Description:
Blueprint: E1 4-8, H1 12-21, E2 25-29, H2 36-42, E3 46-50, H3 58-67, E4 73-77, H4 84-92, E5 99-103
Parallel strand pairs: 1-2, 1-3, 3-4, 4-5
Amino acid sequence: MAGRVLAIECSNAIVAIMQVARDAAVVACHFRMLDERLLDRVQPDLVLAPLMSCTFDASDLARRLAQLRFRGALVIAAPHLPRPELVEAELRRLCRGFTMTLMSPARI
Length: 108
């Protein structure tokens, strides 16, 4: 499935895998760069990001995407979590107007 992916502070390996596996156009950026102009330019179908980084966490990202009226899918890559469904439920409450999936080793 081809599409446009906005990868926010993801490793180069993840970006490369997305390009090959999804035959997708992938744009990588830092969280601080995420604004209305970037979303208008990239028009992502999917936003990919880690659960936490040094500069933001998934709840910060979900709030920002809601403010920017993002209308696609958000995929959060998480490490092994003992109760991923609790984290996912908390994040879904912040996702207004878009879908969110939490991917962790326990769920793959």
